[in-house]
Amino acid sequence: MTNEISGGEVDNAVQASNIYGGVHFDTIRQPFIESYQKAIDHLSSDRSHTRIAAVCVLGELGQKYPSKRQEIIEQLCEYLRLTPCEETTAEDRVRATAQKVIATHLRPARNEHGEATNPEFWPEIDLDLSGTRLTDADFSSCEIRNGNFDDTIFQGGSNFTGARFRGTASFKRTAFNLGSHCFEGAIFENNSWFESIYFNGAAIFNRATFNRNADFSDLTFNDLADFAGIEVRFSIHFSYCLFKSAASFDSVKADFASFVHIRFDRFVSFANAVVQQEPRWIKVVEMDPMAYRFEDDDF
After folding, report:
1. pLDDT confidence of residue 2
2. How far apart are CA 75 and CA 43, in angstroms?
3. Which of 60, 125, 157, 193 is deepest in the core (most CB within 10 A)?
């Protein structure tokens, strides 16, 4: 396998090997496959510090071998997909490290000219975290090609503020447990699906942008549902949704919107909302007849 590091870089390296948590990894002189396989093997160690070391080494290898970045991300996702043998603080640290490594390499930190300034950014990465359990997940300002979070369990909140999905984004049968779940200012470039979900905490989508179709179906919002200021280039569909708490669709701008089999148990506002095509309302029920607020809307 071709080593992607030049001989000059090896000669000039100040430190030809690294020690993580007492585990020796020679990530410069060893061929990729040896360091990579060693790190994968150590992910199954019964010592948490060794597993953390393996996660860090995988991140370092991805920096040095760009063609292997997708494979490395998939390995980290697979580790998070595994059900831990026991719930311990030590294992929580390993999983938090894996989440952090993934997120660090997905943040471009673009400047005012749109140029990525983060030297550790890995572009064009698909992120498949389906079936994983994530605690205090922070993917704010991340740039993801295609994102799959089907059957993912978010514990303690989740943060996708300012995230950009360049491909599709799928959140089907996802568990958003206690805590705030924020997609404020997120950009969905392609189709997105939020299906069969129970939001046990606040769902914040304000100022999000949907450049293709967005589907919100079979959802329960147990807390605040904030869709204020979202922009929808094509269409957004809400079907079979229950809003148990307040909901805001203020200042929404959409080409088309539909609400089918919806129930609002608390206050809902559509103030200053603008929908280009006449929205579709089918079996929309409000428990409180005074709950609606329409003000200068173009519905």
Report:
1. 39
2. 10
3. 125
Domain segments of the chain as ranges: 1-110, 126-299
pTM for this entry: 0.87
Please report the pLDDT score of residue 84 as a whole number.
74
> Which pair of structure tokens corresponds to residue 110?
């673009």
Among the ranges given (2-11, 181-190, 233-242), the one the predictor scored with the smallest mean pLDDT: 2-11
Q: How confident is the model at residue 133 (pLDDT cuts 50, 70, 90)?
A: very high
Confidence of residue 216 (pLDDT cuts 50, 70, 90): very high
Beta bridge partners of 169: 147, 192
pLDDT greater than 70 at residue 240: yes
18: which 2 tokens? 């690294």
